[in-house]
Design a protein that fits this description.
By secondary structure, this protein is an all-alpha fold.
Protein backbone atom coordinates (compact mmCIF):
# COMPACT_ATOMS: atom_id res chain seq x y z
CA UNK A 1 0.00 0.00 0.00
CA UNK A 2 2.86 2.37 0.71
CA UNK A 3 4.23 1.90 -2.82
CA UNK A 4 0.78 2.46 -4.30
CA UNK A 5 0.37 5.59 -2.18
CA UNK A 6 3.67 7.05 -3.41
CA UNK A 7 2.85 6.22 -7.03
CA UNK A 8 -0.53 7.94 -6.74
CA UNK A 9 1.15 11.07 -5.38
CA UNK A 10 3.67 10.99 -8.25
CA UNK A 11 0.83 10.65 -10.75
CA UNK A 12 -0.99 13.53 -9.06
CA UNK A 13 2.19 15.60 -9.22
CA UNK A 14 2.65 15.19 -12.97
CA UNK A 15 -1.08 15.55 -13.67
CA UNK A 16 -1.01 18.92 -11.90
CA UNK A 17 1.92 20.01 -14.05
CA UNK A 18 0.01 19.02 -17.19
CA UNK A 19 -2.99 21.04 -15.98
CA UNK A 20 -0.81 24.16 -15.66
CA UNK A 21 0.73 23.63 -19.11
CA UNK A 22 -2.68 23.10 -20.72
CA UNK A 23 -3.95 26.24 -19.02
CA UNK A 24 -0.96 28.16 -20.34
CA UNK A 25 -1.66 26.98 -23.88
CA UNK A 26 -5.32 27.84 -23.40
CA UNK A 27 -4.53 31.38 -22.34
CA UNK A 28 -1.95 32.00 -25.07
CA UNK A 29 -4.31 30.69 -27.75
CA UNK A 30 -7.21 32.78 -26.38
CA UNK A 31 -9.08 29.59 -25.53
CA UNK A 32 -11.44 31.38 -23.17
CA UNK A 33 -13.47 32.49 -26.20
CA UNK A 34 -13.78 28.91 -27.46
CA UNK A 35 -14.97 27.56 -24.08
CA UNK A 36 -17.51 30.01 -22.65
CA UNK A 37 -19.11 27.34 -20.45
CA UNK A 38 -17.65 26.24 -17.13
CA UNK A 39 -18.17 22.51 -17.80
CA UNK A 40 -17.35 22.11 -21.46
CA UNK A 41 -16.73 23.74 -24.82
CA UNK A 42 -19.77 25.32 -26.41
CA UNK A 43 -23.05 26.53 -24.96
CA UNK A 44 -24.54 23.01 -24.87
CA UNK A 45 -21.72 21.74 -22.64
CA UNK A 46 -19.97 18.39 -23.10
CA UNK A 47 -22.48 17.15 -25.66
CA UNK A 48 -21.02 19.30 -28.44
CA UNK A 49 -17.37 18.75 -27.65
CA UNK A 50 -16.58 17.34 -31.09
CA UNK A 51 -17.80 20.47 -32.85
CA UNK A 52 -15.93 22.77 -30.53
CA UNK A 53 -12.67 20.82 -30.84
CA UNK A 54 -12.35 21.98 -34.45
CA UNK A 55 -10.45 25.00 -33.20
CA UNK A 56 -7.17 24.77 -31.31
CA UNK A 57 -8.33 27.15 -28.65
CA UNK A 58 -11.29 24.96 -27.74
CA UNK A 59 -9.04 21.91 -27.69
CA UNK A 60 -6.71 23.48 -25.16
CA UNK A 61 -9.66 24.61 -23.06
CA UNK A 62 -11.23 21.16 -22.97
CA UNK A 63 -7.89 19.49 -22.23
CA UNK A 64 -7.36 21.89 -19.36
CA UNK A 65 -10.73 21.04 -17.86
CA UNK A 66 -10.35 17.26 -18.34
CA UNK A 67 -6.86 17.20 -16.83
CA UNK A 68 -8.02 19.42 -13.98
CA UNK A 69 -10.82 16.97 -13.15
CA UNK A 70 -8.43 14.00 -13.17
CA UNK A 71 -5.91 15.84 -11.00
CA UNK A 72 -8.66 16.79 -8.55
CA UNK A 73 -9.78 13.18 -8.17
CA UNK A 74 -6.18 12.04 -7.65
CA UNK A 75 -5.65 14.73 -5.00
CA UNK A 76 -8.80 13.58 -3.18
CA UNK A 77 -7.66 9.94 -3.33
CA UNK A 78 -4.18 10.84 -2.03
CA UNK A 79 -5.64 12.81 0.86
CA UNK A 80 -7.85 9.89 1.88
CA UNK A 81 -5.04 7.34 1.62
CA UNK A 82 -2.84 9.53 3.84
CA UNK A 83 -5.03 8.47 6.78
CA UNK A 84 -4.93 4.77 5.85
CA UNK A 85 -1.45 3.69 4.73
CA UNK A 86 1.57 3.76 7.08
CA UNK A 87 3.56 6.06 4.77
CA UNK A 88 0.95 8.78 5.15
CA UNK A 89 0.75 8.75 8.92
CA UNK A 90 3.38 11.46 9.21
CA UNK A 91 1.90 14.75 10.37
CA UNK A 92 3.84 16.65 7.70
CA UNK A 93 2.47 14.50 4.86
CA UNK A 94 -1.12 14.83 6.08
CA UNK A 95 -0.86 18.59 6.51
CA UNK A 96 0.66 19.10 3.07
CA UNK A 97 -1.93 16.90 1.34
CA UNK A 98 -4.69 18.61 3.30
CA UNK A 99 -3.51 22.00 2.04
CA UNK A 100 -3.31 20.62 -1.48
CA UNK A 101 -6.91 19.38 -1.22
CA UNK A 102 -8.12 22.80 -0.01
CA UNK A 103 -6.25 24.62 -2.78
CA UNK A 104 -7.53 22.16 -5.40
CA UNK A 105 -11.10 22.86 -4.30
CA UNK A 106 -10.41 26.59 -4.61
CA UNK A 107 -8.93 26.04 -8.07
CA UNK A 108 -12.01 24.10 -9.17
CA UNK A 109 -14.31 26.87 -7.95
CA UNK A 110 -12.28 29.53 -9.77
CA UNK A 111 -12.18 27.44 -12.93
CA UNK A 112 -15.95 26.95 -12.94
CA UNK A 113 -16.56 30.69 -12.64
CA UNK A 114 -13.55 32.09 -14.46
CA UNK A 115 -15.56 33.27 -17.45
CA UNK A 116 -17.70 35.37 -15.09
CA UNK A 117 -14.56 36.97 -13.64
CA UNK A 118 -12.87 37.60 -16.97
CA UNK A 119 -12.86 41.33 -16.21
CA UNK A 120 -10.73 40.67 -13.08
CA UNK A 121 -7.20 39.69 -14.19
CA UNK A 122 -6.14 39.31 -10.56
CA UNK A 123 -8.37 36.21 -10.27
CA UNK A 124 -6.73 34.59 -13.30
CA UNK A 125 -3.28 35.41 -11.94
CA UNK A 126 -4.19 33.89 -8.57
CA UNK A 127 -5.40 30.80 -10.44
CA UNK A 128 -1.95 30.39 -11.98
CA UNK A 129 0.05 31.07 -8.81
CA UNK A 130 -2.09 28.64 -6.80
CA UNK A 131 -1.25 25.92 -9.31
CA UNK A 132 2.46 26.53 -8.70
CA UNK A 133 1.91 26.38 -4.93
CA UNK A 134 0.17 23.00 -5.31
CA UNK A 135 3.14 21.70 -7.30
CA UNK A 136 5.53 22.93 -4.59
CA UNK A 137 3.53 21.17 -1.84
CA UNK A 138 3.37 17.90 -3.79
CA UNK A 139 7.09 18.14 -4.49
CA UNK A 140 7.77 18.56 -0.77
CA UNK A 141 5.60 15.53 -0.02
CA UNK A 142 7.50 13.39 -2.54
CA UNK A 143 10.83 14.61 -1.17
CA UNK A 144 9.84 13.41 2.32
CA UNK A 145 9.68 9.84 0.96
CA UNK A 146 13.19 9.94 -0.55
CA UNK A 147 16.25 9.04 1.53
CA UNK A 148 18.53 11.96 2.35
CA UNK A 149 22.31 11.78 2.28
CA UNK A 150 24.07 12.92 5.43
CA UNK A 151 25.56 16.40 4.90
CA UNK A 152 29.02 17.33 6.11
CA UNK A 153 28.33 20.75 7.63
CA UNK A 154 25.52 23.35 7.85
CA UNK A 155 25.13 25.89 5.04
CA UNK A 156 22.77 28.64 6.27
CA UNK A 157 23.72 31.08 3.49
CA UNK A 158 22.78 28.58 0.78
CA UNK A 159 19.54 27.81 2.60
CA UNK A 160 18.71 31.53 2.59
CA UNK A 161 19.42 31.70 -1.15
CA UNK A 162 17.18 28.69 -1.79
CA UNK A 163 14.27 30.17 0.15
CA UNK A 164 14.75 33.54 -1.53
CA UNK A 165 14.76 31.83 -4.92
CA UNK A 166 11.43 30.15 -4.22
CA UNK A 167 9.86 33.42 -3.11
CA UNK A 168 11.20 35.35 -6.11
CA UNK A 169 10.11 32.61 -8.49
CA UNK A 170 6.51 32.83 -7.27
CA UNK A 171 6.66 36.63 -7.67
CA UNK A 172 7.95 36.24 -11.23
CA UNK A 173 5.11 33.80 -11.96
CA UNK A 174 2.68 36.35 -10.49
CA UNK A 175 3.96 39.07 -12.82
CA UNK A 176 4.06 36.63 -15.72
CA UNK A 177 0.40 35.88 -15.12
CA UNK A 178 -0.36 39.60 -15.29
CA UNK A 179 1.63 39.89 -18.52
CA UNK A 180 -0.41 37.05 -20.02
CA UNK A 181 -3.75 38.30 -18.68
CA UNK A 182 -3.28 41.84 -20.02
CA UNK A 183 -1.57 40.91 -23.28
CA UNK A 184 1.62 42.75 -22.35
CA UNK A 185 3.83 40.04 -23.84
CA UNK A 186 4.30 42.01 -27.07
CA UNK A 187 4.55 45.44 -25.44
CA UNK A 188 8.36 45.21 -25.69
CA UNK A 189 9.34 43.89 -29.13
CA UNK A 190 13.08 43.97 -28.39
CA UNK A 191 15.34 42.30 -25.83
CA UNK A 192 16.98 43.11 -23.41
CA UNK A 193 15.77 46.71 -23.86
CA UNK A 194 12.14 47.75 -24.23
CA UNK A 195 11.41 50.03 -27.18
CA UNK A 196 15.05 50.97 -27.35
CA UNK A 197 15.46 52.00 -23.69
CA UNK A 198 16.08 49.95 -20.53
CA UNK A 199 13.11 51.44 -18.65
CA UNK A 200 10.37 53.14 -20.68
CA UNK A 201 8.30 55.94 -19.16
CA UNK A 202 5.62 54.49 -16.87
CA UNK A 203 4.17 54.96 -13.39
CA UNK A 204 5.88 51.93 -11.88
CA UNK A 205 4.83 52.59 -8.28
CA UNK A 206 1.20 53.06 -9.26
CA UNK A 207 1.43 50.00 -11.47
CA UNK A 208 2.68 47.85 -8.59
CA UNK A 209 -0.14 49.06 -6.36
CA UNK A 210 -2.66 48.27 -9.07
CA UNK A 211 -1.41 44.70 -9.39
CA UNK A 212 -2.37 43.87 -5.81
CA UNK A 213 -5.50 46.04 -5.48
CA UNK A 214 -8.66 44.39 -6.88
CA UNK A 215 -10.49 47.75 -6.66
CA UNK A 216 -8.32 49.27 -9.39
CA UNK A 217 -9.98 49.47 -12.78
CA UNK A 218 -8.23 46.84 -14.99
CA UNK A 219 -8.52 49.18 -17.97
CA UNK A 220 -5.88 51.38 -16.36
CA UNK A 221 -3.42 48.52 -16.78
CA UNK A 222 -4.22 48.22 -20.48
CA UNK A 223 -2.69 51.56 -21.45
CA UNK A 224 0.38 51.20 -23.72
CA UNK A 225 2.73 52.71 -21.14
CA UNK A 226 1.31 50.47 -18.41
CA UNK A 227 1.75 47.37 -20.58
CA UNK A 228 5.36 48.26 -21.31
CA UNK A 229 6.02 48.97 -17.63
CA UNK A 230 4.44 45.65 -16.62
CA UNK A 231 6.63 43.83 -19.12
CA UNK A 232 9.74 45.57 -17.81
CA UNK A 233 8.82 44.72 -14.19
CA UNK A 234 8.51 41.07 -15.17
CA UNK A 235 11.90 41.17 -16.89
CA UNK A 236 13.60 43.01 -14.03
CA UNK A 237 12.38 40.66 -11.34
CA UNK A 238 13.24 37.72 -13.59
CA UNK A 239 16.78 39.05 -13.94
CA UNK A 240 17.10 39.34 -10.16
CA UNK A 241 15.84 35.77 -9.82
CA UNK A 242 18.43 34.54 -12.32
CA UNK A 243 21.20 36.21 -10.30
CA UNK A 244 20.06 34.51 -7.09
CA UNK A 245 19.66 31.16 -8.86
CA UNK A 246 23.14 31.46 -10.35
CA UNK A 247 24.63 32.18 -6.92
CA UNK A 248 22.76 29.21 -5.47
CA UNK A 249 23.82 26.84 -8.25
CA UNK A 250 27.50 27.80 -8.00
CA UNK A 251 27.33 27.65 -4.21
CA UNK A 252 25.92 24.12 -4.24
CA UNK A 253 28.06 22.70 -7.05
CA UNK A 254 31.20 20.93 -5.77
CA UNK A 255 30.56 22.21 -2.25
CA UNK A 256 32.25 19.94 0.36
CA UNK A 257 29.55 20.82 2.89
CA UNK A 258 26.76 19.34 0.77
CA UNK A 259 28.39 16.88 -1.67
CA UNK A 260 25.08 15.11 -2.35
CA UNK A 261 23.68 18.28 -3.99
CA UNK A 262 26.54 18.78 -6.46
CA UNK A 263 24.71 17.27 -9.44
CA UNK A 264 21.55 19.14 -8.52
CA UNK A 265 23.54 22.38 -8.67
CA UNK A 266 24.79 21.49 -12.15
CA UNK A 267 21.22 20.86 -13.26
CA UNK A 268 20.19 24.25 -11.91
CA UNK A 269 22.91 25.87 -14.05
CA UNK A 270 21.39 24.24 -17.13
CA UNK A 271 17.91 25.45 -16.16
CA UNK A 272 19.16 29.03 -15.76
CA UNK A 273 20.72 28.95 -19.23
CA UNK A 274 17.58 27.48 -20.84
CA UNK A 275 15.39 30.07 -19.12
CA UNK A 276 17.40 32.98 -20.52
CA UNK A 277 17.49 31.46 -24.01
CA UNK A 278 13.73 30.81 -23.97
CA UNK A 279 12.92 34.34 -22.78
CA UNK A 280 15.00 35.78 -25.62
CA UNK A 281 13.35 33.49 -28.18
CA UNK A 282 9.86 34.38 -26.92
CA UNK A 283 10.38 38.04 -27.72
CA UNK A 284 12.15 37.44 -31.02
CA UNK A 285 9.54 34.94 -32.25
CA UNK A 286 6.55 37.02 -31.05
CA UNK A 287 5.24 34.65 -28.37
CA UNK A 288 4.56 31.31 -30.11
CA UNK A 289 2.39 29.00 -28.04
CA UNK A 290 4.93 26.15 -27.95
CA UNK A 291 7.69 28.39 -26.60
CA UNK A 292 5.34 29.94 -24.07
CA UNK A 293 4.36 26.52 -22.73
CA UNK A 294 8.02 25.52 -22.60
CA UNK A 295 8.82 28.73 -20.71
CA UNK A 296 6.24 27.87 -18.04
CA UNK A 297 7.49 24.27 -17.94
CA UNK A 298 11.01 25.53 -17.20
CA UNK A 299 9.60 27.65 -14.37
CA UNK A 300 7.90 24.59 -12.86
CA UNK A 301 11.05 22.45 -13.12
CA UNK A 302 13.09 25.26 -11.57
CA UNK A 303 10.66 25.45 -8.65
CA UNK A 304 10.96 21.68 -8.18
CA UNK A 305 14.75 21.83 -8.41
CA UNK A 306 15.11 24.62 -5.89
CA UNK A 307 12.68 22.83 -3.58
CA UNK A 308 14.85 19.70 -3.60
CA UNK A 309 17.95 21.80 -2.90
CA UNK A 310 16.18 23.53 0.00
CA UNK A 311 15.14 20.19 1.46
CA UNK A 312 18.74 18.98 1.35
CA UNK A 313 20.02 22.19 2.94
CA UNK A 314 17.41 21.99 5.71
CA UNK A 315 18.77 18.53 6.47
CA UNK A 316 22.29 19.96 6.59
CA UNK A 317 21.34 22.56 9.20
CA UNK A 318 19.20 20.21 11.27
CA UNK A 319 21.63 17.31 11.33
CA UNK A 320 24.73 19.24 12.38
CA UNK A 321 24.52 19.82 16.16
CA UNK A 322 27.26 21.60 18.06
CA UNK A 323 29.29 19.10 20.10
CA UNK A 324 31.13 20.29 23.19
CA UNK A 325 34.47 18.55 23.73
CA UNK A 326 35.41 17.89 27.35
CA UNK A 327 38.87 17.34 28.80
CA UNK A 328 38.22 13.59 29.14
CA UNK A 329 37.28 13.40 25.50
CA UNK A 330 40.47 15.19 24.52
CA UNK A 331 42.55 12.77 26.55
CA UNK A 332 40.87 9.66 25.16
CA UNK A 333 42.46 8.40 21.96
CA UNK A 334 40.03 7.83 19.13
CA UNK A 335 40.38 4.74 17.01
CA UNK A 336 39.68 5.48 13.37
CA UNK A 337 36.51 3.85 12.11
CA UNK A 338 36.07 1.99 8.87
CA UNK A 339 34.49 5.04 7.18
CA UNK A 340 37.47 7.22 8.16
CA UNK A 341 40.03 4.78 6.84
CA UNK A 342 38.02 4.06 3.71
CA UNK A 343 39.58 7.04 1.98
CA UNK A 344 43.11 5.66 2.44
CA UNK A 345 44.93 3.07 0.38
CA UNK A 346 44.11 -0.62 0.30
CA UNK A 347 47.22 -1.45 2.37
CA UNK A 348 46.24 1.00 5.11
CA UNK A 349 42.73 -0.40 5.34
CA UNK A 350 44.04 -3.98 5.41
CA UNK A 351 46.56 -3.09 8.14
CA UNK A 352 43.81 -1.47 10.20
CA UNK A 353 41.52 -4.47 9.91
CA UNK A 354 44.34 -6.90 10.79
CA UNK A 355 45.15 -4.81 13.86
CA UNK A 356 41.55 -4.93 15.03
CA UNK A 357 41.39 -8.71 14.45
CA UNK A 358 44.64 -9.29 16.38
CA UNK A 359 43.42 -7.12 19.28
CA UNK A 360 40.14 -9.00 19.48
CA UNK A 361 41.89 -12.38 19.39
CA UNK A 362 44.33 -11.42 22.15
CA UNK A 363 41.45 -10.18 24.33
CA UNK A 364 39.66 -13.49 23.82
CA UNK A 365 42.74 -15.58 24.73
CA UNK A 366 43.46 -13.50 27.81
CA UNK A 367 39.89 -13.89 28.98
CA UNK A 368 40.01 -17.66 28.31
CA UNK A 369 43.20 -17.98 30.41
CA UNK A 370 41.66 -16.14 33.34
CA UNK A 371 38.62 -18.45 33.24
CA UNK A 372 40.84 -21.55 33.22
CA UNK A 373 42.87 -20.35 36.22
CA UNK A 374 39.72 -19.58 38.19
CA UNK A 375 38.35 -23.07 37.44
CA UNK A 376 41.58 -24.79 38.59
CA UNK A 377 41.61 -22.78 41.85
CA UNK A 378 38.04 -23.82 42.63
CA UNK A 379 38.82 -27.47 41.86
Amino acid sequence: MDTLFRNIIRLTFWATILVILAGTAQRMASAGVGCPSGLGCGEAGIGVVQESLQSWSASFGMAHRALGGCAGLLILLSSVLAFVVPAGRSAGVRIQLGLVLILAGLQAYIGMNLTQWSAMPLVMVAHLVTGFVIVALLNRTLASFSPKASPKAPAPVLLFLARTSEFLLLLVVFLGGWVSATGAGLACPDFPTCRGVPFPDADYSGLIRGLFDPQVDPRVLLAPTALAGLHVLHRTLGGLLLIVLTALSFGVTSNPKVPALSRTGLGLNVLVFLTVATAFALVQRHLPVALGVFHVFLSIITLIWVGRIRQGLIGSVASSPVIEVTDDARATPVTPSVSETATGSVAERLRSQLGKTRGGLMSFLQGRGAVDRAFMDDL
